[in-house]
């Protein structure tokens, strides 16, 4: 049966509408920039964190996320209009953090991400929200290591390729016996078994490991400040509006006590003594 011109036009219009609906996607999909699809409803936000740093950013065997960076990310997301169940955490290994942001795979990176000039060529930062220092972790009953020079003739452990360990070896204790292992957990096992005498990296990471239930009472931080590491929240370069909003959220978190509560909850069990929240410098 032949269609009239009016009927044919209507049929084409219906077909085009159906095609547009199928291609356009539903409102619960996430945009390619790691944020919510356009419109009034915010569906979810994708945030990069570390999955393997207890006390900082950790994915537990039951699929939950814990740590200071997780608490900071959750607070900031709330201020941006996202509830916890609207957050998707994505693993952000150190070497991929800039790519995740520039490719739009995540909206924010909150992953013990030190602000430095080289990284600021590729991404922007909000914050900082935490000041870390390179430190040493030793056995709780060890009184022989109180300064870097005490590592001479002792076994110092860190992960393979660690700049922290090389910093100590080259500048502070040239006679230290540097042991480079595959991960910090291996160093902790060696420290507990007295195969090594100290472990070095950022103090907040060391405190996180020491605060784990299985490690409580076994280790202590020496309390040194071998470097300054200002942790910031990474953003796609050029998003000044988001930078302003994240900075405001961090300031509010510090002002209402939530920041200190997060630090105490995640790092306090190790005896870690944090400095006050650093002043916001990025975007100023």
Structure summarized in a few sentences:
This protein has 9 helices and 13 strands. With 284 residues, the protein is of the alpha/beta class.
Descriptive report:
With 284 residues, the chain is of the alpha/beta class. Helices cover 34% and strands 21% of the residues. A hairpin with a 5-residue loop joins β3 (57-59) and β4. The radius of gyration is 24 Å and the shape is globular.
The amount of helix comes to 25-40%
Poorly predicted regions: 1-6, 8-32, 36-40
| Overall spatial form | globular
Treating each run of at least 4 consecutive H or I residues as one helix, how many helices?
9
The first-to-last residue Cα distance is 71 Å
Give, in spatial order, the strands making up the sheet with the most strands. Answer: 10-9-11-8-12
- Percent in strands: 15-25%
Order of helices and strands, N to C? HEEEEHEHEHEEEHEHEHEEHH
Oligomer type: single chain
Could you describe the largest sheet, including whether it forms a barrel? 5 strands, mixed
- CA-based gyration radius: 24 Å
Q: Give the mean pLDDT.
A: 86
The assigned structural class equals alpha/beta
Based on DSSP secondary structure assignment, what is the total number of beta strands?
13
């Amino acid at each position: 049966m032949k269609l009239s011109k009016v009927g044919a036009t209507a049929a084409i219009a219906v077909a085009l509408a159906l095609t547009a609906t199928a291609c356009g996607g539903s409102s619960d999909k996430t945009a390619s920039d790691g944020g919510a699809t356009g419109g009034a409803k915010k569906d979810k936000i994708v945030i990069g964190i570390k999955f393997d740093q207890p006390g900082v950013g950790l994915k537990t065997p039951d699929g939950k996320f814990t740590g200071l960076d997780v608490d900071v990310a959750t607070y900031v997301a709330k201020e941006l209009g996202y509830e916890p169940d609207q957050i998707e955490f994505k693993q952000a290994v150190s070497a991929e953090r800039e790519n995740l942001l520039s490719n739009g795979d995540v909206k924010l990176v909150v992953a013990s991400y030190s602000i430095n000039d080289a990284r600021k060529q590729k991404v922007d930062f909000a914050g900082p929200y935490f000041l870390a220092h390179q430190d040493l972790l030793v056995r709780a009953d060890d009184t022989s290591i109180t300064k870097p020079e005490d590592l001479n003739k002792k076994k110092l452990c860190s992960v393979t390729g660690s700049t922290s360990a090389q910093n100590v070896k080259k500048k502070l204790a040239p006679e230290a016996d540097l042991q480079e292992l595959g991960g910090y957990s291996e160093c902790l096992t060696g420290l507990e078994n007295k195969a090594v005498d100290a472990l070095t990296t950022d103090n907040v990471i060391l405190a996180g490991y020491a605060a784990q239930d299985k490690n409580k009472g076994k280790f202590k931080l020496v309390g040194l400040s071998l470097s300054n590491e200002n942790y910031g929240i990474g953003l796609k370069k050029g998003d000044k509006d988001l930078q302003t909003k994240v900075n405001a959220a961090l300031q509010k978190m510090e002002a209402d006590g939530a920041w200190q509560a997060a630090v105490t909850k995640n790092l306090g069990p190790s005896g870690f003594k944090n400095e006050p929240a650093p002043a916001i410098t990025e975007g100023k």
